[in-house]
Amino acid sequence: MELVITLLTVCLVILISIWMRKKFSFWKMRGIETPPLSFYIKHMRMAFLQENSFADRDLLTYKYFKDRSLQHGGLYFLYHPVYVPMDLKIIKHILQVDHEHFMDRGFYVNEAGDPMSAHLFCLEGAKWKNLRKKLTPTFSSGKMKMVFETLLECTVDLKTVMDKHLDSSVNIKDITARFTTDVIGSCAFGLICSSLDNPNSEFRLKGQDIFHRGFLENIKQVILYSFPDTMRYLNVKMIHEDVSEFFTDVVRHTVEHREKNEVHKKDLMELLIKLKNSGNVDDDKSNLENTITMEEIAAQAFIFFVAGYETSSSTMAFCLYELCNNLDIQHNVREEIIEVLEKSNGKLTYESIAEMKYLEKVISETLRKYPPLSTLFRICTKDFKVPGTDLVLPKGLRLMVPAYGIHHDPEYYPEPSLFDPERFSDENKNTRPDFSYLPFGLGPRMCIGMRFGLLQTKVGLIKLLMNYKFTLNERTKLPLRFDPESLTIATNKDLWLNIRKV
């Protein structure tokens, strides 16, 4: 009996060794360079011990391939091969020119058992394409102008909270997160969240739960990404039950209340309700084949909150941090804001924001240094021959486009650690190659809510900079480090700033 067990064990070890050798020879067989085993061990240690963030590890990977002047490289995520394009021309083909080969992101979706996961960011194939087409008019410039006044109302509480801390210090990371929570609550759900008044409001707490679930939640996300079919078969949910129930109930009650009482507001929820009832966001048109369900409304409202809450608040906080380190830039952007607002008697209008060209540069440079996502994920949906090479990417292969690495590449951005808004002057932008700036992605799958995210970021910064001067407080821990638990780029410590009246 012992001999049989020993023989079975030996056979199992041999089979596993053969299987692993085959799996981990994927790139070698195709002549694509991969980092050595020591590189992977180091990365796994840093990830499991949460020694640094996704962005930090992504930058190390980028530099490994860049130092070797490679067009592209290969990685392994567990046993899955992952393609890393380095050449911007190849990236352009992936994200835009040959988009139909890379339509999907490869994230976990369980539409039947976890409807909240079936939102625009994760959906694939025809379902994504159809929903994107339906939702695109919701984020047109005209619709953004419609929600502008609703957004502007949230700045009243922002100023009230800031005035309480005059000539003192404030954790700006917390303030901007509460501000964007109120904005998304008002514009996406039509609700007054009062997060600025009450830091422990339910919307604020749910937002924190989504982005900061800790080590075990990150392990769960890795498993869902690696074995999606198995996890769907087991009916595993990506969104936690309490979060899913909260947002589903909020959306259902909001929609039912508005329809029953014929309540109409200038917000994104109004547009989603129109899509549900008539299939069109315009009042004078109808396309019943284009309608969406209550579950789809809930899922899209959820991703609006997720995408708009953390990313915009972090961009605002990072921007103010950089302006504290560059007081001359802070002075210049404030002068522009005041000068433009004088033309409209001090009133901030949708049109006046477009005149603030220097503010646009400052925000663009912030997003260059701190893009919301360090990596853009894609799945090869059908075999693709990489232009200019003999490499054929098979269907099902995973890809990682290194946005953070590109943004910190001295070839495209000399002295990348320097905060320099003039990188985004018309002259300098025209000297850089296409696809060297990817804070929202590019191509058909770029962020649909980009206009809204930029709008709320600009409005918040304008209201803060026109009223207050900021300097760095000694309580801010330097050097700044990214949160290893966060999927997006965010600080792992509070950002304390001194404030005083302009």
Automatic annotation (TrEMBL):
Family per record: Belongs to the cytochrome P450 family.
Q: What's the protein called, per UniProt? A: Cytochrome P450
List the source organism. Henosepilachna vigintioctopunctata
One Pfam family here: p450
Q: Where in the cell is it found?
A: Endoplasmic reticulum membrane; Microsome membrane
Q: Which PROSITE patterns match?
A: CYTOCHROME_P450
The record's listing under CDD domains reads: CYP6-like (cd11056)
Query: Known InterPro entries for this protein?
Result: Cyt_P450, Cyt_P450_CS, Cyt_P450_E_grp-I, Cyt_P450_sf, Insect_CytP450_Detox
